[in-house]
Automatic annotation (TrEMBL):
Name of protein: histidine kinase
One Pfam family matching this protein: HisKA
GO biological process: regulation of DNA-templated transcription
Superkingdom in the source lineage: Bacteria
Species per Swiss-Prot/TrEMBL record: Pseudodesulfovibrio indicus
Keyword line: ATP-binding, Cell membrane, Kinase, Membrane, Nucleotide-binding, Phosphoprotein, Transferase, Transmembrane, Transmembrane helix, Two-component regulatory system
Entry-linked InterPro entries: HATPase_C_sf, HATPase_dom, His_kinase_dom, HisK_dim/P_dom, HisK_dim/P_sf, PAS, PAS-assoc_C, PAS-like_dom_sf
Membrane topology category: Multi-pass membrane protein
Source organism phylogeny: Bacteria, Pseudomonadati, Thermodesulfobacteriota, Desulfovibrionia, Desulfovibrionales
Domain PAC: 331-383
Record domain PAS: where: 262-313
Gene3D superfamilies: 1.10.287.130, Histidine kinase-like ATPase, C-terminal domain, PAS domain
Cellular localisation: Cell membrane
A GO-annotated cellular component: plasma membrane
Domain Histidine kinase: 396-604
């Protein structure tokens, strides 16, 4: 029977959707981080450029103040300082602008006196003494990073707190406040206005604008953005590759597990099939053989693998296989092979070529089916058909023969009384009477075989029944030199039997065993035991045995190997056992003896 097994696909592992979600979250986190980095870089760049611009303004103021102290604050000298400062890297322009937005000084001389911006813009940006910055755009595109503040070179710096009033006066004198000379660097209108304490007023001081190139900054930030985007894309691709790999790995694992389960299931199915199966390669080398096939052929399963069909199969089977495989179709033949115990095993052999989808041969498969039970059923059907035919014959014989026999017996009895004792006529009449009685017995036995069994069941103790039947044949066994041996298990259940009919079957088997040993004597052994829900009763003898060719016919009516007898005894035994719901089997070895085994259900009525 096929054993039950549970096959499960692999469970567990990370869901692909979790990996997808993690990849999206990672991509989102990197994108947010990139955005924050971009803004932070903008802030850092703004602070850096602002600090750079403020430092330039302070440097320019210091240069202007130094020139004034040296009484060199003429326009040509300071203009040269402005122009020289504007040549520093990333400096686009440096301009001094009044509150009206007019250019007072510029690194490009041609722009002095032009309008740098409007007065409204000057008021909106509200320049102070501290450096401020803004991004100048043109068409929504940044063109310059501007740092601006009030230009205050005459304010008292921290380093001049110890300066004498004479130095301040020299600075004032060098500034030429309000001088209108065209050669002044602040010409044409003069750019410095002082208060009474000789310090420039904050509101009236010009505003210095330093414009720095944003292109390198924008390029660096764009490059960082590209790198960040590339990094995010690579991470996303890696995540997607991980998802694809996980899908593939899980698919592969599930396919592998399914293949393993399918192989285990197929192996269990093949191992549990009642047929023998042999698989070979195209060259005939055996790759698989199950236990049933190895038992049928009487070969070792492990040793059979790796050998060819010619090494393990009988020649008659090989010949049939060749003819079967030539057709390339599934075909079946019936054969009989000799068993190791001397018996014959009927087999049905089916052979087919295993083909792939492209019709390529990958080997052959041979299926062996044991036909023993089928043949047994066929014999039983034939037996029943014979019994039915005998029944019809018995009915006619009983009607057509018994009535004349009764008349013959009556006249023979009448004539027997007319003659003297010991006369030849008296003896002839008695012979007629004896033969008529013998014919009546034959007809009775024939009717016994043919008629339906009339079983009168009642609870019976089997060991008591065996004892009583053995007592009836004990004397005849002693006369034939037969020793009776009985082995009866304890605790036999109560049986639902017809004691008379079952006793008739047992006595018939006893007498057959004794007659088989009457010349040389022997042992008749009776074994009784319970096994697998049945009561098993075995009657064995050590007589001459039955030829193998006769074993299959001994239960047929009128079949006998004896010189005397009707051949109906075993037929009646078979009929009685079947009527009790049991079965009887025979195993005989010529020259060693015969064993009859009866199996009966032990459920009492």
């Amino acid at each position: 029977m096929l054993s039950t097994k549970t096959f499960k696909l692999s469970q567990g592992g990370i869901s692909p959707w979790i990996i997808i979600g993690m990849s999206l979250i990672l991509f989102l986190a990197i994108s947010i981080q990139a955005f924050m980095n971009y803004n932070r870089e903008k802030e850092v760049m703004g602070e850096f450029l602002s600090a750079k611009g403020a430092a330039l303004i302070k440097s320019f103021e210091a240069g202007a103040r130094t020139g004034m102290m040296g009484n060199m604050g003429r326009g040509a000298g300071l203009q040269a300082l402005l122009e020289e400062t504007s040549t520093l890297p990333d400096i686009l322009y440096i301009a001094l602008v009044d509150n009206a937005g007019k250019v007072l000084a510029h690194n490009e001389n041609s722009k002095i006196g032009t309008q740098f911006t409007t007065a409204e813009m000057m008021r909106s940006i509200s320049p102070t003494g501290d450096a401020q910055w803004r991004v100048v755009e043109s068409g929504k595109k940044p063109t310059a990073f501007e740092v601006y503040s009030r230009f205050l070179p005459l304010q008292n710096p921290a380093g001049l707190h110890g300066s004498s009033s004479m130095q301040n006066r020299n600075m004032m004198h060098g500034a030429q406040w309000g001088h209108k000379d065209d050669s002044d660097w602040c010409a044409p209108g003069g750019c410095l206005t002082t208060t009474d304490n000789n310090v420039l007023a904050l509101d009236s001081a010009p505003t210095i604008f330093i414009g720095m190139d944003v292109a390198p900054v924008e390029a660096a930030m764009t490059e960082d953005l590209k790198i960040t985007g590339l990094t995010s894309g690579i991470i996303l691709l890696l995540g997607l590759a991980g998802v694809a790999s996980l899908f593939w790995a899980q698919r592969y694992a599930k396919s592998k597990k399914l293949l393993q389960d399918t192989r285990a299931f197929a192996s269990e199915m093949v191992a549990s099939l009642p047929e023998g199966i042999i698989a070979t390669q195209p060259d005939g080398v055996v790759t698989y053989i199950n236990n049933i096939a190895s038992n049928m052929l009487g070969i070792n399963r492990d040793r059979a693998k790796g050998k060819t069909i010619a090494d393990i199969l009988p020649r008659q089977v090989q010949t049939i296989l060749v003819s079967l495989l030539e057709g390339r179709n599934v075909q079946e033949r019936e054969i009989e092979i000799a068993r190791s115990d001397g018996g014959v095993l009927p087999l049905a052999i089916m052979a087919t070529t295993i083909l792939t989808d492209d019709k390529q041969s990958v080997g052959e498969m041979i299926v062996l089916r044991d036909l023993s039970q089928i043949k047994q059923l066929q014999r039983e059907v034939q037996q029943q058909e014979k019994m039915a035919a005998i029944g019809n014959l018995a009915a006619g014989v009983a009607h057509e023969v018994r009535n004349p026999l009764s008349s013959i017996k009556g006249y023979a009895t009448y004539f027997s009384g007319l003659f003297e004792e010991e006369s030849s006529n008296k003896k002839a009449a008695d012979i007629i009477i004896s033969e008529v009685e013998r014919l009546n017995r034959v007809i009775s036995e024939l009717l016994e075989v043919a008629r339906p069994s009339d079983i009168q069941r009642r609870d019976t103790q089997l060991d008591s029944l065996l004892e009583s039947t053995l007592d009836l044949v004990k004397q005849e066994a002693e006369n034939s030199g037969v020793v009776i041996s009985t082995v009866i298990s304890d605790g036999l259940p109560l049986m639902s039997l017809d004691p008379d009919r079952f006793s008739q079957a047992l006595i018939n088997l006893y007498l057959n065993a004794i007659q088989a040993m009457k010349d040389d004597g022997g042992t008749m052994e009776i074994l009784v035991a319970t096994e697998h829900g049945h009561v098993s009763l075995t009657i064995s003898d050590t007589g001459c045995g039955i030829p193998p060719s006769d074993v299959g016919n001994i239960f047929d009516p009128y079949y006998t190997s004896k010189s005397t007898g009707t051949g109906l005894g075993l037929s009646i035994v078979h009929k009685i056992i079947e009527a009790h719901g049991g079965k009887i089997d025979v195993d005989s070895t010529l020259g060693r003896g015969t064993t009859f085994k009866i199996q009966l259900p032990h459920i009492s009525r």
